[in-house]
Amino acid sequence: MKPIKITYLYIAIVLMAIVSCKKDTLLNQTPPTKLTESSYWNTANDLQNYMNNLYGIDGIFPHYRGYSSLGIYSVDENSDNMVPQGENARLNGELTVAGSGGYADWSSIRNVNYFLANYQKVNASASDIAPYVGEAYFFRAMLYYKAVKSYGDMPWVNKPLNIDDKDLLNAPRLPRNVVIDSIVNDLDKAIAKLPAKSKAQSQRLYKEYAQGFKARVCLFEGTWEKYHANDVFGVSGQNGSKYLQLASDAANQVITSGTYQLDNAGIPNGYFNLFNQTDYTSSKEIMFWGAYNQQAGITTYWQNYYQFGSDGSESTGISKSLVDDYLCTDGQPASISPQYKGDDSLSHVVKNRDPRLRQSVFLYGDTVISNVPGGTPIKLFTYPALIAGDNCTTGFQIRKGLNTDFFQDSHNGPGGTDGVIYMRYAEILLIYAEARAELGVLTQADADNTINKLRDRVKMPHLNISSIGTDPKWAFPELSPVINEVRRERRVELACEGYRFDDICRWAAASALVVHKQPLGTMAKQFLTVLPTIVIGKNLFVNAQGYIQPYAQVSSMANGYNFNPGRDYLLPISLQETTVNPKIKQNPGW
């Protein structure tokens, strides 16, 4: 599909930043001009220009343009999938209540509400107006969804209040499911008004993406209400099944639309190559993505760190926990499969495993940099730099997301332009499978049309839901085998794409996955002869079994992560918010 073009936008004056838009580029804009209300709200083009600004809000479509990260492929550092150099403060229970700061993007919500209060002044046909109204409802839903995930109960504001308006300052927090119902209602309005993908303007929101986002929202809330039913985060009158059914229905609408299919099915390295493209316009899988532009100076720095990766510059690593979840090529878990070759070396770990593992982790001889000018040889990966200043923390160095092109590194050219993926069809298949499994109605046909299509892409054996063998290392042995395997498939397929922390929260799974867990890496002994500067116990630390233990010297991590399941699933509301409005009660445990 066509992308949104990413740039920084400048918010100004009375309404919001209103800018002109080139026909072929959505957000390649000049600084805004100040306008008054009387000179606006005349044509459908005014609506388009107004809405363009919301595409550029980082809280809606993150830019991932900062230094010292792998972009979207670093987001899972907040979970048990990855291990950054410094322990994650939230996973380790280190957050405190801030003195000030809002708990929602009220400014952006106001901008959407202002649009919805004024768009009817425009003299244009209903068909010309509808897409922009649909965009407004979608953006409000997205902004509120982000807030609910972080803080739970929220005031619902659907009129253009100022930040210091008494109606906002005195607004009570509504139960999260009431807010989610309003979000779903907004998404239904968006779905009704947005054009189908085939009829949508280039680079703009469309119906099927809104349906996919509705499925994402409803899966989150349905599982949150189900698994938090008996803890302090439980919802009065919880009805997780309602949202799970909505998630199933919305995902099925996307599936049956016939618009999408998985890319690179059966192609060697097809999974790896899905995540390093600069243009996803022709993709049948990528549902929404952001494009960068070297000519406009809108680029990223991800590949700086990937391409220096064999020198240790990634400053992160994939966890042993994630690696252990990849099945062997006989379809059995590594814990019981005779095909598993053991942990003595990286090559043994990935041997006879789900190809998605091999395509996500660097091994000796992998290309790091290609297309080098002047006949310079390509750069090949040797070993992870385990003790350099920006070292790979675990020895499992992330390869997923690598673009080997020399000019994608900003040291060698204008910077990176790999597209950032905001939603892909694989997620929709996983949402449908999980919602059906949680409702207890997943059939073999459902599995064949979802999970087994993902496995077909990499030529893995199918999941047969009637003959799932017991994995002694299942994280959730109290749940059904089907749910355990659906969760495994989600973790593997979406690894390092930023979904995992939300999954931990909505499943109420921190006790099983995080609390008192020490993140580990690969076996250290394999590197002792090839990296002679390593001294175990001095500059590299291991546990009793010889696995790299990145946080062995972090005193607060002596007993593993200190995540508090009675507090840390939600963020604290600032003292300023609870002081100004006594109706705003602090979240549990804070």
UniProtKB/TrEMBL annotation:
It is found in: Cell outer membrane. Coiled coil: none annotated. It comes from the Bacteria. Residues 107-219 form the SusD-like N-terminal domain. Pfam families: SusD-like_3 (PF14322), SusD_RagB (PF07980). Residues 294-590 form the RagB/SusD domain. The keyword Signal applies. Keywords: Cell outer membrane, Membrane, Signal. One of its GO terms (cellular component) is cell outer membrane. Belongs to the SusD family. This is RagB/SusD family nutrient uptake outer membrane protein. It comes from Mucilaginibacter rubeus.
